[in-house]
Design goal:
The two termini are 14 Å apart. Strands 1, 2, 3, 4, 5 and 6 form a 6-stranded mixed β-sheet that branches. Helices cover 27% and strands 36% of the residues. With 96 residues, the protein is α+β, with helices and mostly antiparallel strands. It has a single domain, classed as YggU-like (Conserved Hypothetical Protein Mth637, Chain: A), CATH 3.30.1200.
Length: 96
């Protein structure tokens, strides 16, 4: 499963693809949510871009998005507060 819902937050298991042509959610890849990120994986730039992208996509403050693990790996585990945008996104992704 690419996510876990716990109380008032969600944990996303993300497969980040840095150096992409644009930031986008590419879909489900196995047990991960694949996200393409424009920034290179150098000096934490891709992680910063990932947080910025998720913040804008789900209308969440950047400082409310936390890395649980994977800051130096392509496979990441992030904790985000649940809101209506995330709930709708999960529902939509489950239909695919």
């Amino acid at each position: 499963m690419w996510y876990e819902i716990r109380d008032d937050f969600v944990i996303f298991y993300i497969k980040a693809q840095p150096n992409s042509s644009k930031n986008k959610i590419a879909g489900i890849l196995g047990d991960s949510l694949k996200i393409n990120i424009k920034a290179p994986a150098v000096d934490g730039e891709a992680n910063k871009e990932l947080v910025k992208f998720l913040s804008k996509s789900f209308k969440i403050a950047k400082n409310d998005i936390h890395f649980i693990s994977g800051e130096t790996s392509k496979r990441k585990k992030l904790k985000l507060p649940i809101n209506e945008n995330i709930q709708k996104f999960i529902e939509d992704m489950e239909k695919i």
